[in-house]
Fold each of these.
Amino acid sequence: MTYKTFTKAPIISLKLQPVILFDGQQATLLEALEDKKVKIFSECRNGFCGACKTQVLAGEVTYIKEPIASLKQDECLPCCCIPKTDLSLNLSTEGVELIARPLCATAVKKKVLQSRTNQEAIQTNKSNLSISQRDTA
Ligand code: FES
């Protein structure tokens, strides 16, 4: 029996908000960010100038070609790398179309039931409180 290995597409988050599922449609991280309308500077797009330098809050990248621009340990050059793992970048989400996971019918039912249960508990507490106040009066 042979098993295929499954590799999950990395998720790119900005300010802890998931924004991009990097599925390999774009050649670089910069292209993926630009496709989502993330505001990021770029000039050479080849790892020379450092204009696209971005702080990585969590995760790792793989360089397609070794960058020339100098980097701190927590920085990357999106123009010449791709995500190796899920990434959290210190970039603004302003103007970016954010991912919203639609609730499935089961999740909606659970939320409604939970809400009803909470309301019933509040009503029961109020009733118990009014009974105890009446009894003490
Ligand atoms: S745009 Fe020049 S290093 Fe990325």
Amino acid sequence: MRTGIGFDVHAFCDGEHVTLGGVSIPHTNALAGHSDADVLVHAVMDALLGAAALPDIGTLFPDTDEQYKDISSIELAVRVKVLLERAGFAIVNVDCVLVAEMPRVAPYREQIKQNLSDALEIDKTRVGVKATTTEGLGFTGRKEGIAALATALVCCTKQDVLGEASGLRVKSLHGFGSPAEIEDALNGWFAANAGVEVVSVQIEPWANRFAAILVYRQRG
Ligand SMILES: [Zn+2]
């Protein structure tokens, strides 16, 4: 099992609704951002990625990339779930706290939980959504923006299951731009781990780059 944390802030700007947990909520302002500025989903995604020690959303979905302009963050959460799966992780639960004076989130809580549950393909009982104010203090208290915190727990499916059953282990090497880079990384890993027997090597697309997933066991 591994845990991760996520934190995000977006400032208010002119507009008539905010998107929180994939729900468009009428408000006197919007939230500024390159995507839909869904601060809650952003914190949840970073918690999940952090639990798997994968790069954060700013790295995976850069705000300089036009393909992410105004994109639904719930859609990005689906991609994060796929990345975790590929790296051998299953999501156990997520919990998040929205920090804002306004708007009130309670009427939308069930829909937010449903959206996160659908995107991450986990039961609604594994999604915590809470909201709090800062009693008028700080930037959230002055209604300058909204902050969100999240935690996530994931279990390492491939490693746990394979490891217990047969002594097999899984190693992922991430972030390669070309087949030559993958080959270099694999050769480096083989050289540093001469005592292992490699059972399989799988190359996967990974956040516009490539990852190599190795299954191996110790010799003897
Ligand atoms: Zn954000």
